[in-house]
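Protocol step 4 of 5: obtain the predicted structure for the target chain.
Materials: sequence only (see below). No template structures provided, no constraints applied. The aim of this step is simply to have a reference model before the mutagenesis design in step 5. Sequence pasted as it appears in the construct record:
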Amino acid sequence: MTLSADPLYLDCHISLDGTTIERVRRLNRRVVDLAGGGIDFSTGALIPHLTLFMGLFPPSREARVRRAVDDLAGRFAPLDLAFGGMEVARDGYVFLRVAPTEALRGWHARVVAALDPLREGLVRQKFRDRRTDYSPDEQARIDRYGFPWVLEAWRPHVTIGFVDPARQPDVLAGLGEPSFTGRAVAIALGPVGEHGTVQETTP
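Step 4 output (structure tokens):
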């Protein structure tokens, strides 16, 4: 396998069951219809997912990252998930909230413990350039983990849109408070695309 010279931006995530994926795609379609935006699951190979940990990795660590994820995936058993309500975040993101159960938090912590050392301290330039946009606690987590929202600050969610922040209230009003249950069926790894999307999964 030939490794690229540039850092790899990878997302270790939970794969969702088919029914949940279709529900998320329908919510995303409503976001696009209401406000457009930069995430459209009807085009390309974008995959609805629940991120456990994402970051930059040196190409020299790619094989170890993949082995670590394979090991985690081999120990993973499907979990029940509860989806409920919407949330908006800085820059225009629209999230579907997921209940942070003890089991889900446990898998997040295991993934962070396994993958964070393989980053070798790499941090996205975005976080360096906009450091003052983040709180002191968020800055400390960026320095330590390469990402501002991990461990105690991690809030599980599925991203369903990326819109002009001025349109976020329209989106929230249009979507209401969707609530349903689903299943986490696997742990997978994929490259991160624009706006935090996952472009494909890696067996």
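Step 4 remarks: The chain has a mean pLDDT of 93. The helical segments are 18-35, 62-75, 102-115, 125-129, 136-145, 168-175.
Proceed to step 5.
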